[in-house]
Design a protein that fits this description.
Length: 82
């Protein structure tokens, strides 16, 4: 799995809302939300990077969400592009 970190998630947003939004960038395997943060796990790294580029700053229920690379995704990039 290749997770992206999502911050500033609106309180009313559910995992299904994030799954619908992020599925536009690739195959989503799992979504977790805790407080106003969460992770969206993609099947492949290129889809995760596409989501970061496409969805960072996207409006969701009136909030501008922040989408960033997780530590695992950054490590995968470092190891595979050295």
């Amino acid at each position: 799995m290749f997770p992206v970190f999502v911050n500033n998630i609106p309180r009313e947003a559910e995992t299904s809302d994030l799954r619908t939004l992020f599925s536009k960038c690739g195959q989503v395997l799992e979504v977790t939300i805790f407080n106003k943060e969460g992770f969206v796990n993609f099947k492949n790294a290129s889809d995760a990077w596409h989501a970061i580029q496409s969805l960072n700053g996207k409006n969701l229920f009136g909030n501008s969400i922040e989408v960033e690379a997780s530590q695992e995704l950054e490590e995968h990039k470092r190891v595979n592009h050295s």
